[in-house]
Amino acid sequence: MQAVIRIVSMIVAAAVVLGGVSVVSAGGAAGQAIGISRSPTLSLGQLILRENFDDNERNGIWRIYTEDPANCVVVEANQRLEVRTSASAAGAWAMYVANSWRFDTESDFSLKVDLHYSPLTYAKGQVGFGLTPDAEHPRQQQIGVGIGASGMFSHFWYKTIDGISSDTSTAPRFGNDATMYLSYCAEVDELYIGDAGYGPDHAWITFPGLLKGKWGGKPLYLWLGGSSDGLSLTSGQAYLDNMLIENGDLLEASLRDVYRFWSPRTGKHFYTINAQEKEKLLIEYPLVWTYEGVAFAAFCDDSDPLTRPVYRFWSDKLASHFYTMDEQEKEKLVQEQAKTWVFEGVAFYVYPSGLQPKMTSPVYRFWSPVKGGYFYTADEAEKENLIVKFPKAWNYEGVAWYALR
After folding, report:
1. Which residues pair with residue 295 across a beta bridge?
2. All residues at 6 or more sequence positions from 124 whose CB lies less than 8 Å from its CB, including other chains
3. Long-range contact set of residues 139-148: C-beta below 8 Å, sequence gap at least 24
4. Of 242, 232, 246, 225, nearest to 80 (Cα)?
5. Domain end: 252, 273, 294, which one?
6. Which end of the chain is less enclosed by CB atoms within 10 A, N or C?
């Protein structure tokens, strides 16, 4: 299940600006930034999403993608998103990529971005934006549009890339600044690109049958960025500004509460992200399982590309559940201990060590040789209490994963 954020272009009633991102509500109540809420029922309502980069600090709705961080970066500075490269850059790209939120290709959408590119050189450089179904590898499958220059020729450009298949073209450009428009008609599966407005009447190129047809209707991440090939781009030469999504449905990463239960009969704990499973235990098994509240928050799908699955096992022998995101540990149980541990599938998605965002907290794992079961907690005080007061009953096994609290 994914939360749907509906955006419409209309007269606005209220606005909230968080980190340079303006989320404007048309329904009379202030909206919230995408990706902040943990509520499974919250919808951001009818909104306009504007990113003007005025705070000079990356907001949580974006993640960084860079292929050569030493020579090509995107930086929020001077109230815009600047592309900066060194002369050693070799065509690598740097981008802001939507962090977990995506366009739903079942609905129309439209957006525009202001672009600036001033160098007129033989070496190639460019700025632009586009869509991709793969946030981790956006250059492998994408459509992009922008402005740039090469061979002393200033140009507009567009490209589509699908693995090894690509289509790229340019057209003359006579100014350093342009506003580029991208829009989509879901009914006929046509994507329109132009510099004068939305839709087929303003498009200088139309892509039919791409998003639903060739790409199979996958939700799409937005990216903003640029690159150069042997060219130094300094502050003020290449940048993007005033990104505005005026229409569309956005799918938000499905962050949900993970509920914790304790059984007075077995002394074991159980964790589930499934609200129906939680309600079943509360209603049908109140004497077997005692509800202890929300343990942490996780995702019920892999819509955030930084997350990894946590696998769930059940043991009749130990009357206990086990959770792990370690692929080798999972495979060992499946292949070597199938009689002891029954594989129950993916429990939820969380962040592994090294990929965790700043706002996450570690979830610690304990094993009890006394109880014959595992315990997981994101509570620092609870963790320290077990380590200090019950070292013989509970063996501390380290950080299992990272989640939100």
Report:
1. none
2. 91, 148, 149, 150, 151, 228, 229, 230, 231
3. 139/67, 139/93, 141/215, 142/223, 143/191, 143/207, 143/210, 144/223, 145/180, 145/182, 145/193, 146/115, 146/117, 146/180, 146/226, 147/115, 147/117, 147/173, 147/178, 147/180, 148/117, 148/124, 148/226
4. 242
5. 252
6. N
98's enclosing H/E stretch is strand 90-98
Taking residue 380's Cβ as centre, other Cβ atoms within 10 Å add up to: 11
pLDDT at 9 over 50: no
Model pLDDT, residue 159: 94
**Average model confidence (pLDDT) across the chain:** 86
Mark whether 227 and 368 lie in a shared domain.
no
pLDDT at 251 (0 to 100) = 74
Task: Identify whether residues 186 and 264 lie together within a single domain.
Answer: no
Are 234 and 360 members of one domain?
Answer: no
Residue 362, CB-side half-sphere exposure with 13 Å CA sphere: 12
Q: What is the mean pLDDT of residues 187-192?
A: 97
Structural domain harbouring 326: 255-403
Contacts of 274 (CB under 8 A, 6+ apart): none
The per-residue pLDDT for range 156-178, each reduced to its tens digit, is 999 999 877 778 899 999 999 99
CATH assignment at residue 52 = 2.60.120.200
pLDDT at 76: 97
In this structure, what are the phi and psi dihedrals at residue 281, rounded to the nearest 5 degrees?
-65, -40
- 219 and 319 assigned to the same domain: no
pLDDT, position 300: 83
Q: Kindly list the distances between the CA atom of residue 368 and the CA atoms of 236, 295, 387, 400, in Å, as whole numbers in the listed order.
A: 59, 19, 12, 15
Position 43 pLDDT exceeds 70? no
Query: Rounded to whole angstroms, how far apart are CA atoms 89 and 228?
Result: 6
Q: Are residues 104 and 205 in the same domain?
A: yes
Last residue of a domain, one of 252, 274, 303: 252
Q: How many domains does the chain have?
A: 2
| Start-to-end CA span in the chain (Å) | 20
Instruction: Locate 325 and state its tokens.
Output: 């995101």
DSSP state of 108: -
Position 305 pLDDT exceeds 80: no
Grouping H, G, I as helix, E, B as strand and the rest as coil, residue 380 is helix
Section 308-337 average pLDDT = 96
Residues 153 and 286 in one domain: no
Handedness of CA 6, 105, 35, 39 (dihedral sign): positive
What's the pLDDT at 359? Answer: 76
